[in-house]
Design goal:
With 169 residues, the protein is α/β, with parallel strands linked by helices. It has one domain. The chain contains five helices and six strands; from the N terminus they run ααβββαβββαα. Strands 1-2-3-4-6-5 form a six-stranded mixed sheet, sandwiched between helices. A hairpin with a 6-residue loop joins strand 5 and strand 6. The longest helix is centred in the first third of the chain and has 20 residues. The chain is globular and about 50 Å long. It starts with a helix and ends with a helix. The mean pLDDT is 85.
């Protein structure tokens, strides 16, 4: 079993803890008691990531999707694929989607917002600007997550150590 599959299984089991570590404002707004993981085949031949359907604690709409893709490292065509996956999910489920990519290696910043833009020389300005969150494990401060004292933080600390030892960029 490869790292991609292991981390995907980790997210299925510990999604709430993952969100609490990296996106606590999002985690606090969601109800994890009746979480569903609908099947989703990512477009463009990519491996499907994790899609979770959850209820919100308040407000409207009452349901949202969390979409997490796991990538070994950044790739030039990934932003387009992430946008296409977002569009497919939004079209199929008619729900808000919170998109995240987890890079196991590589990259510049630990936590960041990435963008995909569509422009055309014959048209003024941007046609589309799509933003999504990114977690680059190899660029995170491992001690910060170990100090938090929870098992998921410790497990991610070990994963981060391993990613850093393999990181080349």
């Amino acid at each position: 079993m490869g790292h991609h599959q292991r981390f995907t299984e980790f997210l299925h089991e510990f999604l709430q803890d993952f969100l609490k570590l990296f996106y606590p404002d999002v985690e606090r707004r969601l109800d994890f008691r009746n979480i569903e993981f609908p099947d989703f085949a990512a477009g463009s031949g990519g491996e499907a990531g994790v899609v979770a359907k959850l209820r919100t604690r308040s407000g409207s709409p009452k349901l949202v999707l969390i979409h997490i893709e796991v990538q070994s490292r950044p790739e030039p065509d990934f932003p387009r694929r992430m946008f296409e996956s977002y569009c497919l999910l939004r079209s199929e489920h008619k729900l808000p989607v919170f998109p995240i990519v987890v890079y196991l290696r590589g990259g510049e910043e630990g936590l960041a917002t990435e963008e995909y833009r569509i422009t055309h020389a014959a048209l003024p300005g941007e046609i589309v600007r799509f933003r999504y969150q990114s977690v680059r494990l190899a660029r995170l401060n491992v001690e910060e997550y170990r100090r938090r004292g929870d098992p998921v933080g410790a497990a991610l600390g070990a994963w981060i150590d391993r990613a850093k030892s393999r990181c080349s960029g």
